[in-house]
Amino acid sequence: MLGESLTPTHLVFVLVIALLIFGPRRIPGIGRAIREFRKNVAGSGNEVESEMRAKSPSGESAKLS
Known about the structure:
This protein is mostly helical. Helix content is about 75%, strand content about 0%. The chain has helices spanning about 1-5, 10-20, 25-55. The longest helix is centred in the middle third of the chain and has 29 residues, at about 25-55.
């Protein structure tokens, strides 16, 4: 979906706009914040999955719809 329509030209355009909006000093901090957020979200998903396995009667993970 998104990968098919997102070309390197689009990526450069988005990065230039971000540079204009936030400035060169804030871009690295924003990148770190996004990386940290992604780690926390991934960790939360793992915690939820392990809790579901522990609570299910058979010990297998339940399928989420």
